[in-house]
Design brief:
Blueprint: H1 3-17, H2 45-48, H3 58-70, H4 77-82, H5 114-124
Helix pairs in contact: 3-5
């Protein structure tokens, strides 16, 4: 997704959010690495997690896998997957974050919020953003 395309998606999302037509942003598979989103009116963090993030650090990978597990109807399936079993998200709902998982890193734990994870991704991927709150 080019910068121009991303800006168009964000403008249309703002219109949608404000009840002024437009359409809800779909950032699935959008590559936001190195993007400058300062001052952008972004969609919810849950949607940003569906952008294409690719490989991430081991620490962030574990946090994202825990987030995926916390949103799965049977988080214990992640233990089975880590030991060579099938992907827990083969049927039903899709994963909650789009990144390259590493099963060898899996260990259960408390999940961070979608917002915390997005801010960690932004920092790691050098995506410039300020909340302007």
């Amino acid at each position: 997704m080019t910068k121009t395309e991303l800006n168009k998606v964000l403008r249309e999302h703002k219109k949608w959010r404000d009840g002024d037509g437009g359409e809800r942003a779909d950032l699935q598979r959008a590559d936001l690495r190195w993007a400058n989103l300062q001052g952008a009116d972004l969609p919810p963090p849950t949607m940003l997690l569906l952008a294409t993030w690719g490989n991430v650090s081991d620490k962030l990978c574990l946090e994202l896998m825990r987030y995926d597990a916390s949103n799965h109807p049977n988080p214990m399936r992640f233990d089975e997957w880590a030991n060579g079993g099938d992907c827990p998200y083969q049927k039903g709902f899709q994963r909650c974050a789009n990144f390259q998982e590493v099963r060898e890193l899996w260990k259960p734990g408390k999940s961070k919020s979608a917002r915390e994870l997005v801010l960690m991704l932004f920092k790691e991927k050098d995506t410039k953003y300020s909340e302007g709150i």
